[in-house]
Amino acid sequence: MADLNRAKQFMAFAALKGYDELIRERTVIPEPKRPLSEDRMDMLSKKLCSLKRGTMAEVEYFCGKGYTRIEGLVANVDATFRNLVIVRTRIPFDDIWDIFSESIRDLL
Which contacts (CB < 8 Å, 24+ apart) does range 82-86 have? Predict the structure, then answer.
């Protein structure tokens, strides 16, 4: 076997493609919960009202230790129990800091 082909056997291999990037994205920097101003609450209320089931959205929210982001399809916007469900993650309205979505950019 040629030395060049032999060296290829021992090259670094990432068994889980994108895993390291996912870990970096999900890293939470500990910080206290930020207070929401009246203006931010009004903006979030408008954004939540414009979200529809099945649209792509990215949400920045407080998860107990700090703020993190999740991106995915909106599964449910439950005004009764004040929860937003992105894929399988249930996020209370009070913990949301910001919402990003193509449908929202058109409205605001």
Answer: 84/48, 84/51, 84/59, 86/57, 86/59
- Measured from the Cβ of residue 42, the count of other Cβ atoms closer than 10 Å reads 11
Longest dimension (CA), the chain: 70
- How is residue 100 written in tokens? 């990003």
Q: Which CATH class is domain 3-107?
A: mainly beta
Give the separation between CA 63 and CA 41, rounded to whole angstroms.
18
Whole-Å CA distances, 9 to 5, 6, 12, 17, 18: 7, 6, 9, 18, 21
Its pTM surpasses 0.85: no
Residues 6+ apart with CB under 8 A from 54: 73, 74
Contact 102, 79 (CB under 8 A): no
pLDDT in tens, 5-60: 665 566 566 667 777 777 766 667 778 999 999 999 999 999 999 999 999 999 99
